[in-house]
Automatic annotation (TrEMBL):
Domain Alpha-amylase C-terminal: start-end pairs: 383-462
Cofactor(s) demanded: Ca(2+)
InterPro entries hit by this protein: A-amylase_C (IPR031319), Alpha_amylase (IPR006046), GH (IPR017853), GH13_cat_dom (IPR006047), Glyco_hydro_b (IPR013780)
Transmembrane segments: none
Family statement: Belongs to the glycosyl hydrolase 13 family.
Phosphoprotein among keywords: no
Designated name of the protein: Alpha-amylase
GO biological process: carbohydrate metabolic process
């Protein structure tokens, strides 16, 4: 009779000593709390984000904007007063203070490229008067680009750098960010946010501004090198503007990554993410080095326009688990709401998870568990790589964590004795819903079979 895989027959008596290993936890995951009010963000920091180990909460643009219920009105600034449909200046300041107190920094989605697309005179959410090229006590006609292209100054040819960065995206009045006045005004807005305690910025439509203009604006902000900056740089075929230009300012959002994740999880096979070429900078165009990359499965634009996995897809959670437990980039998690039309705002401003379309994706046990795995293992290498076909993969992160991803409907069974690289002990699955116990013997081998359900994952950590 063969001995069990973990049994050393020379040992007659075994004494187990239980101990805890002290591990410094990494916190680098950002949650995009899309369209959440300031009050709800503050409450969420205290009740969930801080305890779960999230590092940042990204809020929708907080400045005064045009009136309306659609989400995109937030991205048409009227002034830099902090009155929006999500709250007041006092509520914003209180949110930043409360979130910082529990270790969660606030990232502000920041609109610097443009103002509004209106052709009439109107009032914004703080009653500031504005028209397309005139903003009360702020900007006038000479503070905008008027590129003289296409009969309406619009951007149509994305292979033309001048047009992309000097004409109007979707008819939005394009700020002349090369001028001292505009740079000073935008720098003062960012400085005010920093003075309130924000931790950084996501720069909307960054590719429509030269990287040097962004750099000049950021240099007007105190301690700008310590801020977390992420820049929206979409890429397309034959476009001259590339993510590498913008790393002088901070991270860039890797849209190619979201596209590749959708393709591999839905059609080609997600095991190709781990071999023969590990997902990351080596994949070429559209990728930059890990420490300069912000990666995500989807965001508020892609969720509405296509080009990424949908939160309704059973593979969506698996893809988020993968990017959280892999070695590449800083991770953003979208937490949004269900909608019918792409422009729809939330059905109710107050967030009630599971009600009125609010999904609260960041609270899902698989995502919370993966954040914990990342926190204890991110400095560790990928080891003990296992694949079974093109849609199943497993790996350890040193001896601190092990993850198995099953991207097909049928269950995946790991036989007793499989080497998974963990230290000896009993572990509880933090990704599944049934708190499976995983036993590991001194050689890093499984004791007993491990079953991973279809379209699910198992993850354990020290």
């Amino acid at each position: 009779m063969m001995a069990p895989p973990c049994l050393n027959l020379a040992i007659l008596f075994v004494v187990f000593v239980l101990h805890k290993t002290v591990i410094s936890l990494l916190r680098d995951v950002n949650v995009q709390l899309f369209q959440w009010s300031h009050v709800d963000v503050a409450n969420e920091c205290e009740s969930h984000l801080g305890p779960a180990g999230y590092r940042w909460a990204q809020v929708s643009p907080p400045q005064e904007h045009i009136e309306g219920n659609a989400w995109w009105v937030d991205y048409q600034p009227v002034s830099y007063n902090l009155y929006s449909k999500r709250g007041t200046p006092d509520e914003f300041a209180d949110m930043v203070k409360r979130c910082n107190a529990v270790g969660v920094g606030i990232i502000v989605d920041t609109v610097m490229n443009h103002m509004t697309a209106t052709n009439v005179t109107a009032l914004g959410t703080a009653n500031s008067s504005y028209s397309r090229y005139s903003y009360e006590n702020l900007y006038n006609f000479s503070d905008f680009h008027h590129c003289g292209r296409n009969g309406n100054d619009g951007v149509y040819n994305f292979t033309d750098r001048y047009e992309v960065q000097n004409c109007e995206l979707l008819g939005l009045a394009d700020l002349a960010t090369e001028t001292t006045k505009v740079r000073d005004t935008l720098g003062a807005y960012l400085e005010h946010l920093v003075s309130l305690g924000v931790s950084g910025f996501r720069l909307d439509a960054a590719k429509h501004m030269p990287a040097s203009d962004i750099q000049a604006i950021l240099q007007r902000v105190s301690n700008h090198e310590s801020l977390h900056v992420s820049q929206e740089i979409t890429i397309g075929s034959n476009e001259p503007i590339q993510p590498e230009e913008y790393v002088i300012n901070g991270n860039v959002q890797i849209f190619q990554g979201a596209s590749d994740l959708e393709r591999l999880f839905k059609t080609d096979g997600m095991a190709y993410l781990v071999q023969p070429l590990a997902w990351g900078p080596a994949w070429g165009k559209g990728y930059v080095s890990s420490d300069q990359s912000t990666i995500f499965v989807t965001n508020h634009d892609l969720e509405r326009n296509g080009g990424s996995l949908s939160p309704a897809d059973p593979r969506y959670l698996l893809a988020n688990v993968f990017i959280l437990t892999w070695t590449y980039g800083q991770v953003d998690i979208l937490s949004g709401y269900n909608f019918t039309e792409t422009g729809d705002g939330p059905r109710q401003l107050r967030v009630e998870c599971g009600q009125f379309g609010w999904r609260c994706d960041h609270r899902h046990p698989m995502i919370v568990g993966a954040v914990k795995i990342r926190g204890v293992s991110d400095s560790e290498p990928v080891e003990n790589l296992i694949t079974s076909g093109v849609n199943r993969t497993a790996y350890s992160r040193g001896s601190r964590a092990f993850v198995a991803l099953n991207n097909i409907p049928e269950e995946w069974i790991f036989q007793s004795g499989t080497v998974i690289g963990m230290n000896e002990g009993n572990y509880t699955d933090v990704l599944g819903s049934n708190s499976t116990t995983v036993q590991v013997c001194p050689q890093g081998k499984l004791i007993g079979n491990l079953v991973v359900p279809g379209f699910s994952a198992v993850g354990i950590h020290q």
